[in-house]
Amino acid sequence: MNVKLRVLTAGVLFFTGQLAYAQKDTTKVKEIEEVVVLGYSKTITKKNSAVSSNTVSDVFLENRPNPNVLTALQGSAPGVVMNGGSGSPGSAKFSLLIRGTSSINGNTDALIVIDDIPSNASEYRNLNPNDIESMTILKDAAATAIYGNRGANGVVVIRTKRGKFNSALKVSYTGMTGMSLRPLDKYNLANTSEYLDIMRLYGLGPGNAAYDKAIAAQQAGIDTDWKKVFFKPEMFQSHDVSISTGGANVTSYNSFGYMEQGGAVPTTSFKRFTARSNIQARSKDEKLTVNSQIGLAFSRRNELFEETSAAIRNNSVQNPLLGVLQGLPYLAPGVYANGQELFNAIGTNFNNGNNIYVLENLMTKGNLPNFVDQVSITGNLGASYNITKNISLNNKLGVDYRQGDRISGRAPWSYLALATKGANRYSGFEDQTTTRDLSINNVVSASYNGQSGDHTLDAAVSMEYNKVYYRTTTRRQNGLDPRTYVPGSGTGYVPFDNTASSPYVPAVSASRITAGTLAYFANANYDYAGKYGFSGTIRRDASYRFVGDNQWATYWAVAGRWNIDQENFMEGSTFSVLKLRASYGTNGNQNIIAAGAGANPLLTASTIVRDQYTTPTGYGNALGSGFGYGNPTVQWEDVAQANIGLDFTLLRNKLEGTFDVYHKKTTNLFSSIPVSGVSGTYSLNGNNGSMTNKGVELGLRYNILNKDGVKLSIFANGSYNQNRINEYRINGDPEPGTTTTVAGHQLYEWYAYKYAGVNKSNGNLLFYTKDGGVTETPNVSDAQYLDVSIVPKYAGSFGFETGYKGFFFDALFTFQQGIKKFDNALYWLANPEGLGSNAVGSGNLSTDLVGAWSPNNMNSDIPNLRATNWGFTADSDYFIKDASFLKVRSATIGYQLSKDMLRNMPITGLRIYVQAENIYTWTKWRGFDPEPITGSNLSIYPNPRMYTLGVKVDF
User: Which has more pLDDT, 873 or 64?
Assistant: First the structure.
C-alpha cells in the first residue's frame, strides 16, 4: 500500500498533480490524507484543490551537489523551464520560466516564497539545499493570484525543515566530496599540423611569418591544447549537520553547513557557511502557535570580470571562455614568468596570437582580483491565535538582510596594469563596493474555517506590507604600490600627488533607494460533500513605482473542481482519483524592468515616471546637459490566464498523472514607444502591446513494483508552449541577424538571411532571396523570419527510481527542443575572413575549414576560405544553430543499511552513494553547454560535469 508521508507545501489555494510518492512496506499502515500549506500559512487537503501545481519529488532534491537550490527545479514539473545561466560556482544567473515568457523587458522569473515570506532576492546561493523540506510550483492564476503584484510568472514555494512534536532527538550528518569538470565542446579545434593545412589552403606558405613560426613549432614538437592548460578539474565538498527534536509543546531544527566548490575556469570558486534555527511552539490548549525561522550565511565568491561586464565579452584577452578557444596550437604555454616579462616582450601588440599570453597572465591568481563576500540574515516570526473554534488571527513578520562587499581591480604587477601605466610611476587600481539590502515583509490576517453538514468554508482577509531599503557605495583607489599591495586589505594605496602626471586621485560614488508595496486581499475556498469545490481570490495592490491612478491595481481569480471519483457511478472503477478542475484569473507584474543577476527586482525602474536632467556626452566629447523624459502613465503589466486540468490515479494507485491546457495573455507590456523626433527623442518608455502564451502539459508516474524490498518507478513530464506577440509598435524594421520583437511572431524570433549553400563555381556563399532565388549579395529585403527563437517550445524530463534490498539507483534525464542560438564562438573559429585578430595566423580555427572549397574540391559544403562574402554570415542563419538537447541530468547509485544491520550500533541510519551531474548531453550544439537561454553563447560559463561520493548518517 502506498503511504503518503510527506507534508507538502503549496501556494495560496493548494496544488494538484503531485507525482511523487514516499513509499514504505509495512503490515500496519493506514492512508494519511495528504496536506499542503496554503499561501500565508494556511492548509488544505489535496482532494479540495482546484488549481494547477506540482511538488518537486525527492529524486530532484536529494543527494545532489546544488550550490543554488533552484537548480533542483530542472525537469521537475511540466511547464517549468529552469536553466542555469552560468556554471560559475555560486552564480546567480538562471532562467526560471513557468509557462513561457510573459514579459519583454520585465522580470520573467517565478516568485520564490520561503517559509511563507515572498523573497525580494534574485539569487539563492546562500540557502542550504539540505535545509529544504519541500518545494512546490504554482502555475495557474488561481494558485498565484493571492501573490498579486509578483505572481504573474508563477510561484515556487519553499518550506525549510522543522522538528516534530513529541519526537526524540535526532542528529544527522550529510557529506559529499568530488570534483567538477568542464563539459566537452565539438568545435574540433585544429592542432599544429591541421592548422598548417588550413594555412596552406588559405594560401600561406614559406616566407609568411606565421607559417614559418608554425613550421618551427611543429619541428620542435609544440602542439598545445589551451583548454587543458586553462581548465583543470576542481574539488567539491560539503558538510552538513542537523539536530532536531520535539517535546509536547516545542520543537526545534538546527543545522550547520559548509560547502566549497572550485571552478573549472581559473580564478573562480565559491565557499559558503550556513546556519539555521527553526523553532515551533504551541500553548497547552493549542490555541496559540508561534514559529520562527532564522537563517545565517556567509559566502565568498571569486568570479570572472566578464560575468559583470558585458563590454569585455568579445575580448579574447580578458574573457577566458572565448580566448581559450583561440589560443594558437603552435604557441607554447608558460613562456613568460610574469606581467613585466610579458610586457617587455610584446608591449601592447596582441597580434600573432599574443592575446593568449595576456590571458594566461590575467588568469594567474591575484593578478585580476574579483571576489564578493556576502553576509545574509533571514528571519521570520509568525504567530496564530484561535479566538474561537472557527476564527483565528495570524501575523507573519519577515526580515531579509544582505550585505555584499566586492573587491576588484588590477594588481600593479599584472600585465594590464603595466600596459596602461604610461609615464606614471605607479599603476593598477582597486575598487571596493559595498551594497546593503534590507527587506521587511509583514502579513496580518484573520481567517474563518467552518463546517455545516456537507458544506465546508475556509476564508481569510489579509494585509501585506513590504519595504526595501537599499544603499550602495563604491570607492576606487588609483595607483597601487606593488611592494605592499594585498587585494582587499587597504595596503599599497598610493597617496595623492599633484606633482605627478596622474595624481592618483581616489573616486567615490553612492546611491540609495527606498521601495515599497502594500496590498489587501481576501480568499475563500468552499467544498460540498467532497465532490464539488469553488475558490476565489481578490487582491488590491499598490507599488511605489507608479503614480496617480496607476499606483493601485486589482487582481482576482476563481476556480472550480469536480471530484468525479466521488460520484456513485464511479464505484468499481479503476480510478481511485479522477478530478476535473478549471480556473481563470489575473496577476500583475510590477517588476517591469528586469533586475540583473543577484539584484533585487524591486529596485529597478525607480524613476521611470519622473523627468530627469542628464549629463550626456556632447560635441567634442565634452559633457553636455540633457533631459530624460519620464512617463507618468506607466502602469503594471497585466497577465490573465485560463486553465483546465485533469488529475488522475488508477490501476490500484500505480499510475498517476496530471494534464493541463492553459491560455495566458499579457497586456500593457512595458517597452519603448516610438514617438516623433520633434520631441527630442525617438522613443518613450511606456506600456506597449500584448503577448500570448498557450500550451499543454502532461505529467505521469507509474509505480511498477513495490514489494518484498524491490521498488521500481518510472516518471515523465513534458510541455509545449506557443508564444505569440499580438500587438507591438516598433521604430523601423528589424535588422537581419537579430532576434526580433514583432507583432505576429514569437518573442525573440530569429530574422536573418537564409543560407543556401556553396557556389560550386567559385566557392562563395549563396543565400536565398525573398522570392526563392539565390544570390551572393543579399539585401535587407531578403531577410526572413525563421519561425524559431531562443526560448524552447518543448521541455520536459523522464527518469526512474529503483531499489533492491537496500541498494538504489535513480536517474533523471531532461530535454528541451525548438531552440536556436547564434554560435559566436563558431563564428570566430570557422570564419577565416573579416575578423581582424581572428584571421588565419592570429587565432585558432576549426578543422571544419580543412575540407573547404578549392579548385580541386569543388563539391565541398564549406565555402572557399578566400570567399568574398564571408561577412554576410553575421546576418544569416549560417551560424544560427540548433540548441535542442537531451541531457543525463543526474544519476545516483547507493546503498541504505537496514535498521536490523544497525541494531547494535550507535547510529540509526546510514546511506552511502555515488552521484553524477550533467553526465552527458546529446545535442547538435557544438559549444560547451546548450542550456542557458540567451541569444548567443559568447561568454557563457558552462555548467560543469560533477562526480561526487556522499554519505548520510543518522544518530
Answer: 873
C-alpha torsion sign, points 139, 141, 144, 149:
positive
CA distance 794 to 166: 47
For cell 513494483, name the residue: 705
Question: Is the distance from CB of 686 to CB of 766 less than 8 angstroms?
Answer: no
Q: Given CA atoms 476, 480, 484, 486 in this order, what sign does their dihedral have?
A: positive
Distance CA(540)–CA(542), nearest Å, equals 7
CA distance 787 to 795: 17
**Contact indicator for 643, 557 with CB cutoff of 8 Å:** no
Q: Distance between CA atoms of 709 and 715, rounded to whole angstroms? A: 20
Residue in the structure block whose three cell numbers are 560559463: 941
Backbone phi, psi, residue 949, to 5°: -110, 125
834-851 confidence digits (pLDDT tens): 554 457 888 999 999 999
Note whether 482 and 528 are within 8 A (CB): no
Q: Is 228 helix (H, G, I), strand (E, B) or coil?
A: helix
Q: At residue 262, what are phi and psi to the nearest 5 degrees?
A: -85, 155
Backbone phi, then psi, for 48, in 5-degree steps?
A: -90, 10
Sign, CA torsion 5/696/601/592: negative
Global pTM value: 0.90
What span, in angstroms and rounded, lies between the C-alpha atoms of 147 and 862?
54
- Going by C-alpha positions, the residue among 475, 382, 462, 384 that lies closest to residue 429 is 475
Q: What is the pLDDT of residues 765-821, one digit of tens each?
A: 999 999 999 999 999 999 999 999 999 999 999 999 999 999 999 999 999 999 999
Share of the chain above pLDDT 90, in %: 67
- Inter-residue contact 504 to 495 (CB < 8 Å): yes
Decide: 206 and 212 in contact? Cβ < 8 Å: yes
CB 259 within 8 A of CB 126: no
Higher pLDDT, 792 or 12: 792
Task: List the helix and strand counts (H, then E) for the chain.
Answer: 10, 45
219-242 pLDDT tens trace: 999 999 999 999 889 999 999 999
Q: In what order do the strands lie in the sheet with 774-775?
A: 755-758, 765-768, 774-775
Q: Give one DSSP letter per residue of 791-813, joined into a string.
A: S-SEEEEEEEEEEETTEEEEEEE
